User: What shape does this take?
Amino acid sequence: MNQQSRPEVRPETLAAIAHLKPVGEFGSRAWCEACAEGGVKLLQAGNLPSDMEWGFSEVYTHPPERLLTDGREISGYYMLVKGGKVTGGDGAPEEVRNTVGFNITARWAAICNQSSALYHSEGQKMRTADEMVLYAALEEYVGRPNPLERGGGPERVWFPEISAALSKNGGLHNIAASLQAPSPEFADLPTTVMGVPDFNAMTDEQKKYFVKLCGIDM
Assistant: This one.
């Protein structure tokens, strides 16, 4: 287990997000809608150039079946800056995915649990370091490179005005983390202090379970 201490979150950040409560699991419709709403508000308050076009979408593949009900086909959310307007919501429309910005696809189980951690730059670095250990452990266990199929896709672009807007009032990540409810899949799995699944600390059965949860073919 990682014995490091989780970095403290700035008091002003905690004050900005103190009113937020969990609304649903990572990738659920309720959580995605709430994240999009929070992000749209940040962008609307950012006084972005009227001619700016920028898209944001995150799609989480291989989610638990309970997250795909009532005709919902994908788990994810989006925001779109276009025509002087900011919109967002559940899903990932093609228009957004085809707009320059930040559009990613990731395995639900590989990023779910750690996304609930509150942090700033130091915590982000710790999370990234822990995730690199996880990815390497999975590669060794499965016996092939990149079993999570990370990377690829369009170039990621963050305009300065976008970054500035999404860092206000606690920041988009911490807003989303505050809205996230725990997922039962991780209740008994060992994790690092940043919440990243600690694959090397798992039992053989836990490793098999987590690999299957990630949708990795053996």
Notes: The radius of gyration is 17 Å. Residues 11-213 form one domain.
